[in-house]
Backbone:
């Protein structure tokens, strides 16, 4: 079984291989994003539109923990894939144990500090008098469940790295389905009637169920991860640096994403006319819809990563060239489709998040979302390029690609556009950051393809 996965990564036609590895990740991402949408809809119906803002306020903490899990998971997966490609079982084993031990330590630390400084975090994250109570109820329980959530992210990346994309898919499906089933039971009055608190508890239970499955699968004899429970806390100090360097672009991208949520929440507090809570809720809905629409694209590049890592490690440049071209065509087509869907369906989408069909909430939210969605079409090159550099073990290049949108462009644009256009400037910032970063990534991607062509020739 283990040898079959190596043969698959080395010899299977790359188009078929990419589809084989990507479809499970795409399905898992879709369900993961769907439960985030459903979670938000249930909160809106159970507690009203203002309660959605609680999820937006708490979101940065979840993003930071996800960032840590992805940094360690993708960093160790890159090391694992390349070691797998050159048949180095010792490096494979050390990468797995180091990843699990490091992640366990960091997630416990963040959970503890978050609980101690909970109210301070909420105020920094932009909570208002209207939504801080909801945010406190939600975030407290999310912090309790950070450890299994973060560990499942690491193990899902490692499962994909060894060619077991179905394991990662099933893990995420379990979490999504459990959360969707439990949400109405915990939130609404016909069940436990816990409101926002119920949504958080349901999420923690779902994340734990997801972790239990992927951890059990990773301990099986079918896995090449070779996890030994007695060695989970045996950490290779030298390998930590490589894991964190390779995973740094993902960590920075997601951490900056968390920072940008905080920034936007606070800019809304400054520039909103009247109570800013409704606009923070609108932004919370937009965030969830962006995740739902973009995550399948992330699923595609997750399927791409082990192919790039293995074939780069094995110096199979023709396969590398072919899979990059095919992946780019697929992801470009996908983003074009979702832009069209977003422009046509924005009003209908926002109606689902309004318990009382609030006309201002729906019309303003749809207008803002349409403006943002135009920029999606420029994300494809940035997404593929950053993933490829990580898989090849080029962290600085991947970092610069990630920073181009979420730091170098977004932050100055946010202050500039809000100064001139008020609250509308927040939505314009998304559009122009995606546009310029996408064009930059397009030029760099074309350069890398030409470089590969020279190696093949």
Residues:
């Amino acid at each position: 079984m283990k040898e079959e996965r190596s043969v698959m990564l080395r010899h299977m036609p790359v188009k078929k291989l990419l589809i084989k590895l990507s479809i499970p990740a795409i399905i898992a991402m879709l369900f993961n994003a769907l439960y985030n949408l459903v979670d938000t809809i249930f909160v809106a119906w159970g507690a009203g539109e203002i309660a959605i803002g609680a999820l937006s306020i708490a979101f940065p903490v979840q993003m930071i923990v996800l960032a840590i899990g992805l940094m360690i998971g993708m960093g160790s997966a890159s090391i694992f894939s390349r070691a797998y490609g050159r048949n180095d079982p010792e490096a494979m084993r050390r990468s797995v144990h180091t990843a699990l031990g490091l992640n366990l330590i960091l997630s416990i630390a963040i959970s503890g500090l978050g609980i101690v400084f909970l109210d301070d975090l909420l105020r920094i994250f932009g909570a208002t008098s209207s939504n801080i109570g909801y945010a406190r109820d939600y975030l407290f329980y999310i912090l309790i469940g950070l450890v299994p959530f973060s560990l499942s992210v690491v193990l899902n990346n490692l499962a994909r790295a060894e060619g077991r994309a179905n394991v990662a898919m099933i893990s995420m499906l379990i979490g999504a389905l459990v959360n969707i089933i439990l949400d109405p039971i915990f939130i609404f009055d016909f069940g436990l009637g816990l409101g926002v608190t119920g949504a958080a508890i349901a999420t923690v239970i779902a994340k734990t169920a997801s972790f239990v499955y992927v951890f059990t699968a990773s301990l099986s004899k079918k896995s090449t991860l070779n996890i030994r429970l007695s060695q989970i806390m045996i950490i290779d100090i030298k390998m930590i640096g490589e894991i964190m360097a390779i995973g740094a672009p993902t960590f920075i991208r997601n951490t900056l994403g968390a920072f940008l949520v905080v920034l936007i929440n606070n800019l809304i507090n400054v520039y909103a006319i009247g109570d800013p809570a409704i606009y923070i809720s609108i932004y919370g809905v937009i965030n969830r819809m962006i995740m739902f629409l973009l995550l399948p694209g992330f699923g595609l590049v997750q399927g791409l990563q082990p192919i790039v890592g293995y074939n780069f490690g094995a110096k199979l440049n023709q396969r590398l060239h072919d899979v990059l071209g095919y992946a780019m065509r697929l992801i470009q087509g996908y983003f074009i489709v979702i832009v069209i869907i977003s422009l046509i369906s924005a009003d209908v989408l926002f109606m689902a998040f309004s318990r009382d069909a609030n006309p201002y909430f729906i019309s303003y939210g749809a207008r803002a979302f349409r403006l943002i969605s135009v920029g999606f079409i420029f994300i494809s090159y940035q997404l593929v390029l950053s993933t490829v550099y990580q898989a090849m073990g080029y962290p600085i290049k991947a970092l610069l690609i990630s920073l181009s949108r979420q730091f170098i462009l977004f932050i100055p644009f946010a202050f500039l556009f809000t100064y001139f256009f008020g609250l509308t400037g927040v939505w314009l910032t998304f559009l122009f950051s995606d546009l310029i970063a996408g064009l930059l990534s397009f030029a760099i991607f074309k350069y890398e393809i030409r470089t590969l062509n020279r190696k093949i020739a």
